[in-house]
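Crash report, auto-generated. Payload:
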Amino acid sequence: MNKLYSEILARVEVEIKGIELPKTPTNLYDPIRYIMGLGGKRVRPVLTLLGNQLYKGNYEDAIHHAMAVEMFHNFTLVHDDVMDSADVRRGLPTVHKKWSSNIALLSGDGMLVAAYSLLQKTSPETFSRTARIFSDTALEVCEGQQLDMDFSELDSISMEDYLGMIRQKTAVLLSGSLKIGAVVGGADDQDLPNLEAFAESLGLAFQVKDDYLDAFGSSEFGKVLGGDIMEGKRTWLTVKSLELLGGKGSQRLHEAYAIKDFDDRVKEVLMIYRELNIDKLAQQQVQEYSDIAQKSLAKMRGDKDAIETLSWLVDQLIGRTI
Amino acid sequence: MNKLYSEILARVEVEIKGIELPKTPTNLYDPIRYIMGLGGKRVRPVLTLLGNQLYKGNYEDAIHHAMAVEMFHNFTLVHDDVMDSADVRRGLPTVHKKWSSNIALLSGDGMLVAAYSLLQKTSPETFSRTARIFSDTALEVCEGQQLDMDFSELDSISMEDYLGMIRQKTAVLLSGSLKIGAVVGGADDQDLPNLEAFAESLGLAFQVKDDYLDAFGSSEFGKVLGGDIMEGKRTWLTVKSLELLGGKGSQRLHEAYAIKDFDDRVKEVLMIYRELNIDKLAQQQVQEYSDIAQKSLAKMRGDKDAIETLSWLVDQLIGRTI
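Recovered output after restart:
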């Protein structure tokens, strides 16, 4: 593993464990401790600290901002799980399952407020700049989630609409996390577009890879393949398939998705995907976004160690097999 | 009606109508326009503008902050209505009833973010001070709502706990609204405790009066009396009754609340209230809080017109009959 990355990740985990929240009401704050402690890749706070290191040569100054973006990310997980009626998150019960929907709703609200409070642990000038990025990002994430729900009611959507949706739902938060760290480190506004291009491409590569892995990944760590197919979820794979099959041909995919038996449904959908070379096309798309990310990185000035680590991170996220 | 008050109220309504929100996704932004347009007393934004006038002699500078607190208040209404499964708000369908719970959840989230964005339409220094008050207030409101839900599971709670809960759920937002306006107007930190004492007492008076009116108010404008009793809601009246009835005696109130027929239940509960003089005790409590508010006001320095209007507002809110 990359040295700077593991150092930063360890720092993030320590900070999350030490995060200060009131004790009571326990039904408001226990769920926050629970979801924050569930683990995860912590990509967003790591990006914040790397963004800071890029400009300042150290990462410690942005630790509260890193916590703010992780708190925000976990807020979206808690509310999204309510909206999706998801029972399990990282192998454990979701907040609304373990407590109740009302508690999930309210502790999620509390997390969004807490994220702003964390963001404010800095000078007024820095808070003002990072809060601007944070609020703009947060509203885009809400828009992305709404589009995701809207699209699920439609028979088909264009690839452009799908990519626009995952950009808002996933990529802009990676971008916001990096930019916030960079601003804390002293980045100028003119530095931000390139950071944005890098992180949004990384985010898109990451999400398409995620869609790919759900159907074609490795099941060696006990992961159930085809979960998205069982849930009837729209992914890059379904959107691309419908595009290739065209109006009338798309009937075949809809019929496959209508199969009641989960095993049969997954088998049939995967067969269509393979016929259409969807696996290779998805890998290509991931590679294209990854290339854009690396090109943006090549133009980046700043701490070499941070740049190398960001480059390593791209390779990790697109090269992963689970 | 008070001249400054009606001027400010008219300004608030104009600003709410002109509030800028993106058009799409419509399922995210239409519910925000809908709930903001539903009306209401607009007490919170009016307090913000009066707080500003108090120190600056004009109110216009705090207009975005006034919108921020009204946006936050409406966010709490949207999420509270989901939690309470309430179908009607101000005589019209609630957001989750008109759209869906998921849309109410998400557009509520968007409103909380939008509130911070509105708050930021000012200098970094002012934003930093007002955001501190705003976040602290918002977290207290979440705590108050959680306590309200927690208490509803209990057989009885103490008057101290009940008052603590309504302080957090209702009074601190009135206080936060006034303080934010005052800070924009140039108030020092040392001015804030007295503003807080004033607005929190006003909020407590307002809430106890609300509880009183639901049982003993006028039905001349078509308002259904006893709604809280029908819903089995805990109010100042129930808490006080249980306190007076004591352990064994409280059985009588629980039995009255168990009556299935709504008319009979309301009749029986009101009879117990009257026997215990709850109506007069509630009026006394309202008067006590109102006196504290007026005393805090007497100590306040600043624009005379604003102080007079705040005093008038206290009398209005505690003197109202619906």
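Post-recovery validation: Chain A touches chain B through 38 residues (CB under 8 Å).
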